Amino acid sequence: MSVIEVNNLTKYYGKALGIEDVSFQVDEGEIFGFIGPNGAGKSTTIRLFLSLIYPSSGSATILGKDCIKYGPELRQDIGYLPSEVFYYERMKVIDLLKYSASFYQKDCTQRLYELAEIMELDLKRRIDDLSYGNKKKVGIVQGLLHQPKLLFLDEPTSGLDPLMQRKFFQLIRDENQRGVTVFFSSHILGEVQRMCNRVAIIKEGSIINIQDIKTLQHDNYKKIRVSAPVLDEKRFEIDGVSKLEKNNGAIRFFYKGNINQIMRKISEIEVSDVTIEEPTLEEIFMHYYE
Question: Which of 19, 101, 107, 281 is geometrically suited to a Cys-Cys bond with 189, CB 3.0 to 4.6 A?
């Protein structure tokens, strides 16, 4: 079953393009990555899903219901962590979270305290005394305290130190194992690589690719490094080879094509070392953006 279904979703801010003709679906129980640089349209898409803004054209359904028409009802089952968090500064953390919990038709008290403990959040402090990282923790607890079926994360780790990031990722994995569908928007590609089943790449407001993470890496190209006593880079100037460079007694390049063909080329010379590895998501991403 599709938890999110998007059809030709378009948003213009006056004449400025937000997103155009965006279509995809997110299946129940998956962690779906949504990647692109700042300004590509990631936050616009999420805000449309949450009916915080309205589309110029196209449609989106969440849990089978139109996300604009049924916005308030759907938000009972949605958790959201925005990229920037702003709060009533004079409130204590506990009062703010209890106020947030009061919007849901269930008792969130126990989960609130569990999450605060996991994220090492001091509930007695005032919001205006908190660092940016601690305000982000408040946002995480706030987004999860009602045990949503669907979770939107928009650049979720900015402001968190590495230890907290690790705890956060484990928390999201635990939520996902409980059956929560996660929509994970980021420009930090390593995070998406670590967390997601599938990924959509958005560029200048349009989706340019949607693939399974493993397929995205395997169907792309290999990163090859060859060390040899005598090296002639012209030998490797063949179809499928790109970004060929020679330095420190080694040749490096990317290769897309029949792996046997490049292995034959390598086997014709005396080599001291060869490494063949998958490109990182970052390198794949740059490939799509160039």
Answer: 281
Write down the pTM of the prediction: 0.82
Q: Write down which residue in 217, 233, 266 finishes a domain.
A: 217
Q: Are 141 and 260 in a shared domain?
A: no
CB 128 within 8 A of CB 86: no
Boundary (domain end) residue, out of 182, 217, 252:
217
| Domain harbouring 73, CATH code | 3.40.50.300
Residues 38 and 115 in one domain: yes
C-alpha–C-alpha distance, residues 215 and 192, integer Å: 14
CA–CA distances in Å: residue 79 to residues 59, 104, 111, 153: 21, 11, 14, 8
Q: Return all residues near 12 (Cβ < 8 A) that are at least 6 apart.
A: 18, 56
Q: Which domain holds residue 237?
A: 220-289
**What distances in angstroms separate CA 228 from CA 160, 166, 223, 244, 254, one per listed residue?**
44, 40, 17, 15, 18
Residue 143 tokens read as 């987004």
pLDDT digits (tens, 9 = 90+) for 224-260: 999 988 888 788 888 888 888 888 889 999 898 888 9
